Amino acid sequence: xxxxxxxxxxxxxxxxxxxxxxxxxxxxxxxxxxxxxxxxxxxxxxxxxxxxxxxxxxxxxxxxxxxxxxxxxxxxxxxxxxxxxxxxxxxxxxxxxxxxxxxxxxxxxxxxxxxxxxxxxxxxxxxxxxxxxxxxxxxxxxxxxxxxxxxxxxxxxxxxxxxxxxxxxxxxxxxxxxxxxxxxxxxxxxxxxxxxxxxxxxxxxxxxxxxxxxxxxxxxxxxxxxxxxxxxxxxxxxxxxxxxxxxxxxxx
Length: 252
Known about the structure:
Number of domains: 1
Low-confidence stretches: none
Structural class: alpha/beta
Strand order of the largest sheet: 3-2-1-4-5-9-8
Radius of gyration: 17 Å
């Protein structure tokens, strides 16, 4: 009997902590869960450290090594290879029998997150068996003044309505242990753990929503500041040009 798998796609080791409770719930219900990371987060040359931390975090989650897929594409270097990444993901969709995909949101947080969202949508458009496509937020710059402009694990205003995975105390504790496992990212994980407190996670859970496959990727994800432009890692015009170079080749 055909049993489609649920594939979680991440740009970097540690992106997984934002949707870890949802992953764990799929595992607890006996789901066929697979996960893929496009890069090893090697912007500072520490890919081996990041991958070792990833394995610790996935062990805490309960996801077996056989379900982990590392593509080792260049960190902050996905724009020139968007079409190849879409091909990589399409191959995984077909080989694993993917029925549902969760991936990073199009939100202007990290250039690799937006690039992945586009590449995953491309793969879905080309797939013979098109999976359900869902996205989850990490961070963006559409927040309030009292959060210094940051909006963490919540979508920018607008777009499809969000669904939420309810989390209990055990899932939240597991999620926080995974955050601590990414020791090399402690500077990011500490504020994330503070903002994604037990109280907030009990109240709000983990948001996700459908990805519109007719999304206009030539338009910025929101009208506010794009974090990767503020940090000078990339500009939206580079993203737009990369998207325009990739042709959509749907198979149905």
